[in-house]
Amino acid sequence: MASFLAARRLLSTAAARRLLPCTSPPPPAPAALCWLSTDASLPPPLPVPPPEPTVDPPKKDGASFSAGSGAGGAYRTGQGAASGGRRSGGAGYEEEQQKVLRASLLHVPRMGWSESAMIAGARDVSVSPAIVGAFPRKEAALVEFFMDDCLQQLMDRVDAGEGELLKNLMLTERLSRLVRMRLEMQTPYISKWPQALSIQSQPANVSTSLKQRAVLVDEIWHAAGDSGSDIDWYVKRTVLGGIYSASEVYMLTDNSPEFHDTWTFVNRGIKDALDLQKSYKEVAYLTETLGAGIGGSIQGVLNKVFQK
């Protein structure tokens, strides 16, 4: 009986321990609960795994950023592509320079052939003024661009129909007309043209200036109908080049209406030069004829002497 009561007391004590919470401090066990339960369906929570290390992908020189690099990577990709295309051909950069130089001509009558005019032209076409620093000879580049552009305009006018009108004129009139057409292109810049001549005469620019004038004179002769290739080719271009340069300087001091005195000077200079050339040829032909005649007379006299 006593053993039965002791066993019942032990069972009651065990049942009470299963239902009452533990009031003692939790043991340093990994389990989060301290309920005394035998249910195996509630395993203790697993520890949080450590974060995995991130490794950046290797970057290659010249490679563009991937799409996962975000908006900044996309911007750098586009910028690199644009600069790479510009370096390969350079056409876009040259076109910008041409636009700046052409716009700068509008500021020359007020600012002269200067870097300030080029900066103003760059702003007019929405190009950074820093592009002016890309010209090694800033003012000279502007003057040389003007010379080339005027030559192209002259040839375009000849091809567009002016050449047909020139065919009905005499040679002196054709040359005078072409020289006048070219000089008229300088009238908007006549007040600043002494500065342009000074820039062209500088040692670093004189070779290019002479080449441009030689090409201009050659094109004028071709447009006038000259296609010779003899020694007169050099004489004609040298003479016309001198007349053009003298007329250019004369134009700077001409105060007549619409440069009337300059055009008279051009007409007279070309006419006198061609007349001189004609006179020279006539003298040469006459000398040759006289020489042949004198030679024939001497030969006849010698024949008569030896016959005797």
Automatic annotation (TrEMBL):
Pathway annotation: Cofactor biosynthesis; ubiquinone biosynthesis
Family from the record: Belongs to the COQ9 family.
Purpose: Membrane-associated protein that warps the membrane surface to access and bind aromatic isoprenes with high specificity, including ubiquinone (CoQ) isoprene intermediates and presents them directly to Coq7, therefore facilitating the Coq7-mediated hydroxylase step. Participates in the biosynthesis of coenzyme Q, also named ubiquinone, an essential lipid-soluble electron transporter for aerobic cellular respiration.
Identification of the protein by name: Ubiquinone biosynthesis protein
Sequence ranges of Pro residues compositional bias: 44-56
Main location: mitochondrion
Localization, UniProt: Mitochondrion
Coiled-coil intervals: none
A matching Pfam family: COQ9
Any one GO biological process: ubiquinone biosynthetic process
GO cellular component, one term: mitochondrion
UniProt xrefs under InterPro entries: COQ9_C, Ubiq_biosynth_COQ9
Chain intervals with Gly residues compositional bias: 69-92
NCBIfam families found in the cross-reference section: diverge_rpsU
Keyword Isomerase assigned: no
Region annotated Disordered, chain positions: 44-94
